[in-house]
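Hey, can you fold this one?
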Amino acid sequence: MEKPLAAEGQSRGIVELVLVRHGESVGNVADREAIAAKAHRLDLEARDADVELSEEGQKQADALGEHLASLPKDQRPTIVVSSPYQRARSTAERALAALDLEVVIDERIRERELGIFDGVTWYGIEATHPEESARRARVGKFYYRPPGGESWADVILRVRSILVELQERFHGERVWLFSHEAVILAFRYVVEGLDEQRVVALQKEEPLANCSMTRYRAVDGALQLVRADDTRPVEESDEAHVTHETDDAAEDAGAEEGT
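Sure. Predicted structure:
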């Protein structure tokens, strides 16, 4: 396989990139409950940007914070960027509570926008917009753009933009991003040079846990995957537990991707 363009870099690039999925949110909980009940909508009043961490999600973020505080100084993040969405910001703030680091907010790593289907399960879409369910099946998950929303390809354009900026601006820095599952998968697509089929399969085969870390290090000027979906800080905690969407079968049967 040829080396992906986005993984190329000069000596000015970052030395480490760590992608953290937010802790469990009340939206994740509502999503699981809606799927179990085969409901058409999530029981959730807040807009997506304002969805908070659940109690479990707060514990997960605190566990990550304990892990960060225990690291030697030369292994800690030096630059931190977060999605503006509350669940990601809160994860970053709690995880960095013991470190003197500013959290930079960047809308390019916000959650994928679902347009008119925000908060709607695939049970609801199939019941009220069967033509969209059929269009998604025809176009494919990667390129499907819900009305008023974004496709995975749209999210990837955002990721390409911020990745170039990070490489240009932060020579020698260890960069941590606090974001969302779709965005982290988009980074994997870009950095690892994946194709449509592989990145879609990854969501089903390797669902990202809440508060997991996906880590890259620069090797000969290119970012190389060290470990994906690392949940050790949560696993080692006495208080927190690992949570994630069980698998993509729920979406195929009736739910949109996790919030």
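The chain has ten helices and six strands. Let me know if you want another pass with a different chain boundary.
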